[in-house]
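Holo prediction — pyridoxal-5'-phosphate.
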Amino acid sequence: MKLIIPENIQKIEPYKPGKTQAELEREYGISRSVKIASNESPYAPSARIVKAITDAVTGLNRYPDAACHDLVETIALKYGVQKESVVVGNGSNDLIDFLVKTFIEKGDEVITSHPSFLMYQKFVQVRGGINHIIPLKDMRHDLTSIVNNINDKTRLIFIDNPNNPTGTTISPRDLYVFLSTIPEHVIVVIDEAYADFMDEELRPDAASLINNTNKRCPVVFLRTFSKAYGLAGLRVGYGLMNYELAACLHKVRQPFTVNTFAQIGAKVALEDEEHYLSILQKNRDGIRYLYKELQKLGCTAYPTQGNFILVDIKGDADKLYKTLLRKGFIIRSMRAYGFPSCIRVTVGTEAENSSFINNLEKSLGELGYGNN
Ligand SMILES: Cc1ncc(COP(=O)(O)O)c(C=O)c1O
């Protein structure tokens, strides 16, 4: 075999998802591990969602609805936008892919921050685009530096708000000022994967921003069912955008990218307000508990508006990662993100949080970190 691999593809480092519980349990011969590494919801879907998905099994001989009609209608109603402004995909990752495929040609430029969600840069590499990576400033997107790096070749700017992994946000006022300085040829993508967890007053008005594009840059908001809606395994996400932009994405996407279960499960999840609100409340309770306990252990927990916390353990994060693995806990070391003494921990159930704190205390003790 003589493969000819394009140079841009050769340079790509494959995305490393967090270790799965099954993998850990096989490797270490343990059971009942806890995964708090990928910012998933620790709660199973509600009975209502499970029933809707189960009921759909007998229809699997048919392709899914390519237009995702019912789900799109529910999303549009909830956010007060036109149906034509909604594009659904196989996770919000799919939307990032559509945007880059649609608007980036070889040599075009895309601005992202570091650290932030790693997939933006990978999709750009696949297209032969150029990544301009701006370091965070004081754990936040450096909006001034982002603006200063725009040029005629810039096509897209990706901003995750809240930022993964720091949990920081941009105030709506700062965002509006920022958008007012962006040239009309640049599309600003606000990735709101964790926006459900944000305080209400911090959320920008997506409906007005996507429609009001007269003499201003287009803005796209990305949302997902993988986090607050607890449906990471179904793979559903969507984008809200001006309908002209949406029409371009529809040209590029595959027709049946969102499967039947995903369309049905996501629609019911949007309607199951009680389940959704209870998850948000439990997340807030979990954050309060973890902050208090992490402080007692001598760690610095950064304030977060997401369902995860960036924690400075004042030691080697990779070593702590391995020590916790042996105890059955999967967390994320933030070394690869440029924070070698930090870990990122997803908020778990009450039992998971307290068991994590106990095992963290033991692990910090073994390594001589924290208060030890
Ligand atoms: C900031 C951010 N955006 C997007 C995603 C992708 O989410 P999904 O493809 O599951 O919708 C993630 C996943 O962790 C994320 O952290």
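READOUT: The first strand starts at residue 34 and ends at 35.
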